[in-house]
Design goal:
Elements lengths: L12 H19 L11 E6 L5 H12 L3 E5 L12 H11 L2 E5 L3 H10 L4 E5 L5 H14 L7 E5 L4 H9 L6 E5 L8 H10 L3 E5 L2 H4 L5 E4 L11 H7 L7 H4 L7 E4 L11 H4 L6 H19 L5
Parallel strand pairs: 1-2, 1-3, 3-4, 5-6, 5-8, 6-7, 8-9
Helix pairs in contact: 1-12, 2-12, 3-4, 5-6, 5-12
Length: 306
């Protein structure tokens, strides 16, 4: 890993394994109410161009529980790339803080932020990828399944930033990953082909949900229209009408397949209540694990060894 965490494949395989192990250690410490304050007197600046519930709560709560202070900077506090240049914001925040987390629209902005900051930068989400989410997701999978290399992980829906981060993961650790999407909603094909060329993982794209989901051990979905795409919502509902994750579709996966969603979910649209609230659903484990996995990333970037 460089001094920042912008893409899942910024990690080496060894660093990925370390973060998985650290996530478990941190989670166990929190569950046991151990006093654990390695970030005492440290501060994190959190830039939110995009609003969020889980990202803010998990980072702010997690950093506080590690002994530090997290500062929320919303769109009205920082007009990143608009009221003030990204480079200037990076240099100013570096004078006050120990680490930056940013949840942005434009992926170029997170790259520029990291380029000009003299402190670590964490990508809390861009329109292109969502690396912290996928680290939390794969940590959640390891809690429920034994060997991730032998699993079939299927994503149903839009080839969006979540998919891109799963593809980034496929370049550092072997996984079997199937993207089940309409023909016109495929992921970034340059990234997909790059993953294929590495030959480390088995990745494929399917357009028939019932065929694609067969033998799946993990079924994942996300909203059909992400933030900034809401004007396309009705068009997308028509395009994705056969891609709803419901009990019928889940019945074609393995009987012990777990269901995942990064949340928030539009219940009754991309997924039904019967799936979200089933015994196979681990969506709230995922939500909780955002904090533990992100704390592991933060500690790694700040040179704290567990």
């Amino acid at each position: 890993m460089n001094n920042s965490f912008l893409h899942v494949n910024d990690l080496t395989k060894n660093e990925f394994d370390q973060i998985m192990n650290s996530s478990k250690i941190i989670k166990d410490k929190f569950k046991n109410n151990e006093k654990f304050h390695p970030l005492f007197n440290k501060t994190m600046a959190m830039i939110f161009a995009k609003p969020s519930a889980r990202t803010r709560i998990s980072f702010e709560t997690g950093f506080f529980r590690l002994g530090g202070h997290a500062l929320f900077l919303g769109p009205n506090d920082i007009g990143i790339g608009k009221r003030e240049s990204v480079a200037d914001i990076a240099r100013v925040l570096s004078r006050f803080n120990d680490i930056i987390m940013a949840r942005l629209f434009d992926h170029k902005h997170i790259l520029e932020l990291a380029k000009f900051a003299s402190i670590p930068v964490i990508n809390g989400l861009t329109d292109f990828n969502h690396p912290c989410q996928i680290i939390a997701d794969i940590f959640t999978v390891t809690e429920h399944k034994e060997n991730i290399e032998n699993l079939k992980i299927s994503y149903v829906g839009d080839g969006n930033n979540i998919v891109h981060s799963w593809l980034e993961l496929a370049m550092i650790t072997p996984i079997n990953f199937t993207i089940i999407c309409p023909e016109t909603f495929k992921p970034d094909m340059d990234l997909f082909n790059k993953v294929k060329d590495t030959g480390l993982s088995n990745v494929e794209i399917a357009h028939d949900p019932f065929d694609g989901i067969k033998n799946s051990d993990v079924v994942y979905t996300d909203v059909w229209a992400s933030m900034g795409q809401k004007e396309e919502a009705e068009h997308r509902k028509k395009a994705f009408k056969d891609f709803q994750v419901n009990s019928n579709l889940m019945s074609h996966a393995n009987s012990d397949a777990i269901f995942m969603h990064c949340l928030p979910a539009e219940r009754g649209v991309e997924v039904t209540d019967s799936v979200c609230d089933s015994n196979n659903s681990v969506i709230f484990d995922q939500a909780e694990n955002r904090m533990h996995a992100q704390n592991a990333i933060v500690l790694k970037l700040m040179g704290v060894n567990l």
